[in-house]
Amino acid sequence: MTTLKYFTAGHSAMVLCCLLYATWWYIAFRPDAEGGLLIGRNGLIFGLTFISGLIGVMLIVLGIRNAPESTWLSVRTICILGVLSCLAGCNGIFLSSSCHIGTAVNGSLGYNGDSSNLHDI
């Protein structure tokens, strides 16, 4: 396989991993969810999520290892850019969830800065 095919297959497996994870999260954390988080259907979906993510990481690493050294992107540069993009993505997730939490606490619960009505919340 060429480097591009490894990357394409690896990223496709990671997309599948993300879709399965979102599905597992949706099913496992519903108020009417039955069983445990890793039992039955939930366990099957989580297992497939884990396997597809592991395969995706392995294929991407194989693509990095098979990348020719003569390109303008060295293996080291690819790894550094991967870590930086992961950190940027995690930071974006953290910032967006912080904003939603602030909105939920301050907006939808009706908190207006007056601490006299906190017992109603």
Compact summary:
This protein is an all-alpha fold and 121 residues long.
Task: Provide an overview of this structure.
With 121 residues, the chain is mainly α. The chain contains three helices and no strands. The protein has helices at residues 3-28, 41-65, 75-108.
Instruction: Find the count of extended strands (DSSP E, 2+ residues).
Output: 0
Low-confidence stretches: 100-111
Q: End-to-end distance, in Å?
A: 59 Å
Output the structural class: mainly alpha
N-to-C SSE series? Answer: HHH
What is the mean predicted local confidence, pLDDT?
A: 77
Helix content: over 70%
Strand percent estimate:
under 5%
Radius of gyration: 21 Å
- Main beta-sheet strand count, sense and barrel state: none
How many helices? The count is 3
Shape: elongated
